[in-house]
Structure formats: structure tokens, C-alpha cells
Write a structure and sequence with these properties.
Helix content is 41%, strand content 24%. The protein has helices at residues 3-13, 32-37, 47-52, 62-69, 111-133, 153-159, 163-169, 180-188, 240-293, 298-324, 337-348, 374-391, 447-457, and strands at residues 18-21, 27-30, 73-76, 89-95, 103-109, 138-143, 148-151, 198-207, 213-225, 228-238, 332-335, 357-363, 370-373, 396-404, 410-416, 461-467, 471-479. The strands form four sheets. Strands 2-1-5-4-3 form a five-stranded antiparallel β-sheet. Helix 9 (240-293) packs antiparallel against helix 10, helix 11 (337-348) crosses helix 12 and helix 12 packs antiparallel against helix 13 (447-457).
Length: 487
């Protein structure tokens, strides 16, 4: 069988219509499928007459376009084209053995199936792309050179880059600090972190556009094609809100534990204080009587004076215990914080221990009142101020400031000293009962725990910052008096 015979058999075996027409649209040759559709009459006839019963060429004829342009032409079938069903695509190819069009081959292709697949694929790709771009998690994909090829809105929000800026200028290596990108690729190529080509729930820092480290939880994978690494894609979530919530929860748990400890200790302190009050009163009374009514040797008088001082000190401790246990009557009413601080300082600043202390007052005028018990507020401020003066060794600067919080709901009081600061190891424990950094016998460890208790009782907050050889600042926040019924 000759080459031409093989080509003829191939054309007849082609289960789509194939026809060769002359420049005047006469059919020169046709395969079996076309001849069968034309009822056996094809050669020498005009294609438009055979197929459509027309006297002139079809308006949208690909052969006419090929004869005009000299180039292959594709034309969707329509009622005016060669295909009467309007379902296929007609494709015409010029035959130019000598550089001149001698004839045109026209064949129809079953494009609807192909086109349907392409359309579904396009829709699927568009849906997938939209899904990734609108994801609440950050999504970044990069080719193996590190060039960003996908960067969604969540990633832009976290990283601080515009989407176009990232796609054009950002390399994935710049997203991770140091050799972070190299380390992640090493883990992706290992079996140990979720399987080969996968990395799951890995917490790492990324760098935003301003160079700030952002903690994220990363799930990443390598995209393969025929076993070859084609790209990487990472899904990540900003952990800052989670970390902040965990810190707030931890602080709340600490405060609840502290409150529970204070409550339990308060009950014990109340019982002990009441039992000590009567014998202490007797010791003080009879010691004073002995000192006043009898002529005593100096040595004995000194011993009795020491007994009296220690008994009075013990009585003061009992008083603190009763305050701590909330056994005194409380009367809460609107209180002027500036006035309470002013009176406290007035009572203290003339004491001997304040002689070498410079006092700076920066009190915001017209500060709204807080709802509180004035005696407890006096005690609160006195404890912290006395602690500050003792820490400075009775020589330094005390600064007292008041202001309204930014949201206008709390009065903020800060008391600062220029002392040596609180050791880092002691800072977490300063509000615990009986914890003190003072020498044995010089402190009960109840002052700051009582201060904490008073602030909590007023539904406020107290915090402390301290730096070595710079000083300490206590910050107290108390809710301001709520106005009701327009009053």
C-alpha cells in the first residue's frame, strides 16, 4: 500500500468530517464521514449548497477567512457555517505547496467536550483561587527560587505588604528572620514533621514589612509535579491575639489565686488579732503604770520602756491584721483622690524620715471622684509612700501623679521613688502576705498585701515596674464614680 493510500485510509477512519475545497468552494475530496453525511453526493459540488442548500458561501465560513488571510482559522459552528448542528468547531488549513493557496482543508472537531472540561477547570481554578485569597488564614505560595506566586489578603494584613508589592518584589526568604526559610525547607524534606513534604502546626516568627517579629502557627507543604519539587505553599495564623489572651488568662488566674490566699489568711488573721488584743492591752497599760508611778533604776526603766515599745509595735501589727481581715467598718462614698493624696502627704511630709526627701506632686485637676472608703484609701497611699521613702534610705525624690485613663473610666495614681529598685526575683511576690525584702524585725510583709487587698476591694488594679538603681513605680487604677439618673 502506498503512502497516499495510507493517508486516504487514515482520513476515512477519522470519525469527524474532513473535506478539501477549492478557492471557489467546490469540493475536491472528502472523507467517508463527510460523504455519508452529504448523502453520497460531494465531489464537484459547492460545500455551502451540499450542506445548507445555499447559493452563496456561508457568512461565517472559516474556509473563506483562510482564503482571505492565508492562515489557519478556527470558527465555532453556527447555522451559517458548515456544521448544521452548531455544536462543533470548524478548523480550516490552507494547502500551499508553491506558496499559493491551491485548496483548503476543513475539518470539524468535537470541541464541546474539550471546551466543557476547560470551562469546568477554569471555574474550579477560579473557585480555588478565590477560596485561598479570601481565607481568614494567611496563605503564601512561592516557586523554588523563592518568588512569591500567591499572597492573599490575610497574609498582606499580617505581613504589612500590599498584595501586588509582595507578588512583584518579595522573596519568601525575606519573610523569615535569619535562616528561617532554609530551616523550614529542611523540615519539609524530612519525614519527622508531618511526613515528607509536609510541616504541621509549627510555631515560628515571621518578619513584617517594618521588621517586627510576628509569631505564627504554620502549616506548609511542597507541591510536586512528577516527583519534582515545583513550589511551596504555607497556611499560617497570627498568634498574637492567642498569646495575649493566654497572658491575660494567666494574670487573671494569678489574681484569683492571690485573692483566695488573701481571703483564707484574712480569716486566720482576724481570729489571731482578736485573741492578741486583750493581753497586749494589759501589757501596755501596766507597763505605763509602772513607769509613771514607781521610782525605778535606770536599767529597769530601760527594760520596761523596751517592753512598752515592743507591745505597742505588736498592737500596730494587730491593727494591720484587723485591717487586712476587713474587720473594720467600711463606708464607701464618692472620694476625691487628689484630696486623699494631699492629706496623706500632709501627715507624712513633716515626719523626720521625710526631711531629705524631695516631693513632686503632679495632680490632674478636676479628676472625677472614685467610689471608695476614705480610710482605706489613706491606708493604701500611706503604705506605698512609706515603702518608697524607706527604700530610698530617707534620701531621694518621691513623685506622685494622678490622671484620668484614656477611656475616662478610671483614676490612675502613680507613686515613684528613686531608690535601688526591687530585685527581679522578688518582684512577682511583693503582694504576697508576709513577704518582705526588709531585714528581719523591720517589716511584717503585710503592707503591700494590704494595699493589694484594698485595691481589689475597690474593684481596681495595682501594678509595679522597677529597674535596678533607677527606682520603682506603683500604678493604681480605681474605677471612677458612676453617674446615675443624670446626677
Amino acid at each position: 500500500m502506498s503512502e497516499h493510500e495510507w493517508l486516504a485510509k487514515a482520513a476515512d477512519s477519522f470519525n469527524r468530517r474532513l473535506v478539501i475545497i477549492s478557492p471557489d468552494f467546490s469540493i475536491l475530496a472528502a472523507n467517508r464521514c463527510f460523504t455519508k453525511m452529504a448523502g453520497g453526493k460531494a465531489i464537484g459540488e459547492s460545500c455551502f449548497k451540499i450542506l445548507h442548500g445555499r447559493e452563496t458561501p456561508c457568512v461565517y465560513c472559516p474556509a473563506a477567512e483562510t482564503l482571505k488571510s492565508g492562515k489557519p482559522t478556527a470558527q465555532l459552528a453556527s447555522e451559517n457555517a458548515v456544521d448544521v448542528n452548531g455544536e462543533n468547531c470548524l478548523y480550516s488549513i490552507p494547502i500551499t505547496p508553491n506558496g499559493k493557496i491551491e485548496a483548503v482543508v476543513v475539518l470539524d472537531l468535537n470541541i464541546p467536550a474539550i471546551k466543557g472540561i476547560e470551562e469546568r477547570l477554569d471555574r474550579s481554578n477560579a473557585f480555588l483561587k478565590n477560596l485561598l485569597l479570601s481565607s481568614v488564614d494567611g496563605v503564601i505560595a512561592a516557586d523554588m527560587t523563592g518568588k512569591i506566586i500567591l499572597f492573599n489578603e490575610a497574609a498582606a494584613r499580617i505581613a504589612g505588604y500590599g498584595i501586588e508589592d509582595a507578588l512583584e518584589n518579595l522573596n519568601i526568604r525575606a519573610v523569615y528572620p535569619g535562616d528561617g526559610a532554609k530551616r523550614i525547607m529542611k523540615m519539609l524534606r524530612s519525614e519527622e514533621y508531618g511526613g515528607l513534604g509536609k510541616l504541621t502546626s509549627y510555631e515560628v516568627d515571621v518578619l513584617n514589612k517594618q521588621g517586627e517579629r510576628i509569631p505564627i502557627c504554620l502549616n506548609a507543604s511542597i507541591v510536586y509535579e512528577n516527583g519534582r519539587e515545583l513550589a511551596t505553599v504555607g497556611f499560617f495564623r497570627d498568634l498574637r491575639a492567642k498569646i495575649r489572651m493566654e497572658e491575660e488568662l494567666k494574670n487573671t488566674q494569678v489574681q484569683l489565686l492571690q485573692a483566695e490566699k488573701l481571703s483564707s489568711l484574712g480569716k486566720l488573721a482576724a481570729g489571731v488579732a482578736h485573741q492578741l488584743n486583750n493581753p497586749l492591752g494589759g501589757i501596755i497599760l501596766f507597763t505605763k503604770l509602772a513607769l509613771e508611778e514607781y521610782e525605778l533604776p535606770d536599767k529597769l526603766r530601760n527594760d520596761l520602756t523596751r517592753i512598752l515599745d515592743d507591745a505597742q509595735r505588736s498592737r500596730d501589727i494587730v491593727r494591720e491584721l484587723l485591717e487586712f481581715a476587713r474587720q473594720t467598718k467600711q463606708i464607701k462614698a464618692p472620694q476625691d483622690i487628689n484630696r486623699a493624696l494631699g492629706r496623706t502627704l500632709f501627715l507624712l511630709e513633716n515626719q523626720a524620715i521625710f526631711h531629705n526627701i524631695a516631693i513632686e506632686k503632679d495632680l490632674t485637676p478636676d479628676l472625677p471622684p472614685v467610689h471608695g472608703d476614705v480610710q482605706q484609701l489613706y491606708h493604701l497611699f500611706m503604705n506605698i509612700i512609706l515603702n518608697a521613702v524607706e527604700a530610698m534610705g530617707q534620701n531621694g525624690k518621691l513623685t506622685v501623679r494622678t490622671r484620668l485613663s484614656e477611656d475616662g473610666r478610671r483614676a490612675v495614681i502613680s507613686i515613684s521613688d528613686t531608690g535601688p529598685g526591687i530585685p527581679d526575683s522578688a518582684l512577682p511576690h511583693i503582694f504576697e502576705p508576709f513577704f518582705t525584702t526588709k531585714e528581719e524585725g523591720k517589716g511584717t510583709g503585710l503592707g503591700l498585701s494590704l494595699a493589694y487587698n484594698i485595691v481589689s476591694n475597690h474593684k481596681g488594679r495595682i501594678g509595679v515596674t522597677s529597674a535596678r538603681d533607677t527606682g520603682t513605680t506603683f500604678v493604681i487604677e480605681l474605677p471612677i464614680e458612676e453617674k446615675t439618673n443624670g446626677k
